[in-house]
Amino acid sequence: MRLIKMTDKMLKVGEDRGLTLDEFIGSMKGERNGQFLVPKGWIGEGELGVSEAVSFSHKREVKYVARTSSGREENNGRDSDKFPYKFRMDPTSIRKVKLALDALQRRLDALGTNLNLKGRGWTKIPETTETLKMFEQIWDGGSPV
Questions:
Q1: Residue 129 and residue 52: Cα distance in Å, rounded?
Q2: Residue 136: strand, helix, or coil
Q3: CATH number for the domain including 53?
Q4: Reported confidence tier of residue 130, pLDDT bands at 50, 70, 90
Q5: 55-70 core/surface letters (b: 16 or more CB in 10 A; e: else)
Q6: What is the CA 54 to chain-centroid distance, rounded?
Q7: Strand residues in the chain grouped as ranges (E)
Q8: How far apart are CA 114 and CA 45, in angstroms?
Q9: What crossing angle do the helices spanning 129-141 and 101-110 adopt, rounded to 10°?
Q10: Plot region of 137 (φ>0 → left; ψ -120 to 50 → alpha; else → beta)
Q11: Collapsing DSSP states into helix, strand and coil, what is residue 71?
């Protein structure tokens, strides 16, 4: 289970090719067919599994949840020099949600995970019965995209 904290820089906001998070996620359902490009060092080999829960946040709010349809793979296509890896999300699993990062932190604290979500990056959340149930509750409360 991963929390991917999207930044304005990752979305290229303010540049000619700038996207909002909604547009970025929308492109996952469209021309990118779930493909998410990954820079070197962000996800190690074997650290992301098929059907793993993924949450996307931006500006201290979880805005989308989904499931992966692949683990980390080599990117032999577009921008492979900057993004040598990729993974795919199942486009049919993407749900729009609204959950403050602080609220997610409180839920995880109550489950005893001892994680700090304030840092940057791709936080790995242990997949336990309790955290998976929490994710499913968040996913069930979301609306299909």
A1: 13
A2: helix
A3: 3.10.590
A4: very high
A5: bbbbeebbbbbbbbbb
A6: 4
A7: 2-6, 35-38, 53-58, 61-67, 73-74, 85-88, 95-100, 122-124, 143-144
A8: 24
A9: 150
A10: alpha
A11: coil
Provide the β-strand partners of residue 100.
Answer: 61
- Token pair 């993407």 in the structure block, residue: 94
Whole-number Å distance between alpha carbons of 101 and 117: 7
- For range 41-68, the mean pLDDT: 90
Q: 3-state DSSP call for residue 3? A: strand
Q: How many helices (H) and strands (E) does the chain have?
A: 4, 9
- Residues counted in the chain: 145
Mind listing the pLDDT tens digit for each residue in 72-89? 999 998 788 888 998 999
Q: What tokens were used for 41? A: 């060092």
Q: Please give the DSSP secondary-structure letter assigned to residue 93.
A: G
- Containing structural domain, residue 124: 2-144
Query: What's the total number of domains in the chain?
Result: 1
**107 and 60 in contact (C-beta within 8 Å)?**
no
Query: CB under 8 Å to 37, separation ≥6 — which residues?
Result: 75, 78, 79, 82, 83, 85, 86
